[in-house]
């Protein structure tokens, strides 16, 4: 069974995080919601409070296949300020494991030097912060082990792409049909 960690900080865009959690869990991926806020209780950007499964610093990342950085303000800077989050992202990327970010959060990947020479996307207000990347104006961009999306409007295709990567195209298609998502999910992997 594949394992994923979805980070959640104070001010995270709730839907960008929870759509990913929901669809990955539908695909039988073991998902840990990890708080980057020092408390299991975390409040998102629109005042929705969730209870995380673990603190980011308490997660064993050695067997994790994917880490996900949702966007939101001030969620993105709060994620970037958490050493456990940035350490896990760098470690997984260095190992060739999967890293994904949506909305403002791809800027964290750029700050860590992970987008250098890669194709990526982010929310329009953050595309200029993707230093070193070739920025594409697409819902979802996959470049090797890095997946990025431009924001809440891309949360479903972003999550379905992560399902495809961890559970296969048939499972992604099954979930797409089950949730009545009618749009095409043909994203080209770059590299």
From TrEMBL:
Keyword Repeat: yes
InterPro entries: Class_I_gatase-like, DJ-1, DJ-1/PfpI, Prot/Nucl_acid_deglycase
DJ-1/PfpI domain mapped to chain residues: 3-165
A cellular-component GO term for this protein: cytoplasm
Keywords of this entry: Repeat
Record bears the keyword Repeat: yes
Single GO BP term: glyoxal metabolic process
One Pfam family in the UniProt entry: DJ-1_PfpI
Gene3D superfamilies noted in UniProt: 3.40.50.880
UniProt name for this protein: DJ-1/PfpI family protein
Species name: Candidatus Faecalibacterium faecipullorum
